Amino acid sequence: MNCKSAPESYGARPIEGHLPMLIGPQILHMAKGALADEYGAVFTIRLEVMEYIYKTLVVSSWEVAKECFSINGKVLATKPSSVTVRVMGYSYDVFAFAPYGSY
Predict the structure, then answer these.
(1) Do residues 1 and 47 share a domain?
(2) Which helix H or strand E contains 87, and what residues bound it?
(3) Which is one Gene Ontology cellular component term of this protein (predicted)?
(4) Strands (E) located in the chain
(5) How far is CA 89 from CA 6, 56, 84, in A?
(6) Residues 6+ positions from 65 with CB-CB distance below 8 Å
(7) Residues 66-70: what's their mean pLDDT?
(8) What are the two backbone dihedrals, phi and then psi, of residue 32, each rounded to the nearest 5 degrees?
(9) Closest C-alpha among 17, 22, 7 to residue 57
(10) Do 18 and 11 touch, CB atoms closer than 8 A?
């Protein structure tokens, strides 16, 4: 299996990440389209909110999206577990917070 990480787009700021690029003068889908033209069908961006860094995978090709959701659907459907989600979601019983499984 070949595990490569997707390229990260250039221009992330230390505190905001790529957020200023996405809320600039262009419409959001146009900004992401321009990044897809430059970096390819799959790339990553960093969104930093209140000292938390979220590395986000952006997929802009239906072929790759189909592969992600058909072959790797279980991995994408699993949500990270945390104490907050456990308490708010009644021990992961709420559908929106439940990891992949019997629910």
Answers:
(1) yes
(2) helix 83-88
(3) membrane
(4) 42-49, 52-59
(5) 32, 24, 8
(6) 59
(7) 83
(8) -70, -35
(9) 7
(10) yes
Q: How far apart are CA 100 and CA 74, in angstroms?
A: 7
57 shares its domain with 93: no
Place of tokens 């262009």: 26
Same domain, 79 and 64: no
CA distance 33 to 50: 26
Name residue, tokens 């299996």.
1
CB 29 within 8 A of CB 19: no
> Residue 17 burial (CB < 10 Å; 0-12/13-18/19+)?
buried
**Is 60 in contact with 27 (CB distance < 8 Å)?**
no
Domain of 91 in residue numbering reads as 75-103
Q: Say how many domains are in the chain.
A: 2
